[in-house]
Amino acid sequence: GTVKRLQTAEAATRIATSHQKETESLLDFALNNSPVGVSLRDSELRVVRVNASMASMMGFDSDDPAGKTID
Description:
By secondary structure, this protein is mainly alpha-helical. The protein has helices spanning 2-33, 52-58, and strands at 39-41, 47-50. 55% of the residues lie in helices and 10% in strands.
């Protein structure tokens, strides 16, 4: 009944969280090791994240552009 559904939901949440962490780790690895400049943007084209290569090309630290738009 209810307990079984809760256990199933909790297991699904654990699996989803594990997959999300793995995906984030792969993204971090790809961005941190890419010689190509990469910027991630949201639906309004604001910068969410840049890698070191992009930061270097644009002349700022990788944390600087968060939330800004870059033309």
